[in-house]
Amino acid sequence: MSEKIKEFTTATVTNEKTIELIEKLFTVTQPETIYGKPVEVGDRVVFTASEVSVGMGVGFGFGGVFEAEDDSEDGPDNAEMGGGGGGGGGSQGRPVAVISVSPDGVDVEPVVDATKIALAFFTMLGSIFFMGAKMKKESKK
Length: 141
Prior knowledge:
Blueprint: H1 3-13, H2 16-27, H3 31-34, E1 39-41, E2 44-59, E3 86-102, E4 105-110, H4 114-139
Antiparallel strand pairs: 1-2, 2-3, 3-4
């Protein structure tokens, strides 16, 4: 592997911005993010628990380096090389429970996401309809 390729790949993979992005994505999963700040209400302490999802991807592309073996005037000494690279990520969170601590004990109340339930319901109905239509079509053969 030529020195130019080594320099290019090292500079791209160890890019400080990429490392900074990865560090920021993982700071989302710290306990301070999962559990909200406690709020005192009378003799109760109330805080939320959240669901956090983090995703990321990194890609890298490269072309080729063609070094001419023959030093004739017709051929190039070195052909151009390609390159590329990139990455990205995202995170999201939503509350899943409210936790209440009092002298009487601990209460955990789930936070119901009606939108998620509706989407799951309609996805299930669509799957049932699709599979029923496919089974009916196959039974006619």
